[in-house]
Specification:
Number of domains: 1
Radius of gyration: 19 Å
Strand content: under 5%
Largest sheet: none
Mean pLDDT: 94
Amino acid sequence: MNVEEGQINAYERYQTSKMRFNRYKSMLEVLNTQITIVSQLIHLN
C-alpha cells in the first residue's frame, strides 16, 4: 500500500467515525429532550 492509499483510507475512517459520532450525538440530544419533557411532566403533577 502506498502513501496515497494510506491517506485515503485514513480519511475514510475519519469520515466514518465522524458520521458515527454525529449519529450518537443526535441520539443523545433526543434522549436529553425526552428526559427534560418527562421531568417537566413530573414537576407539573
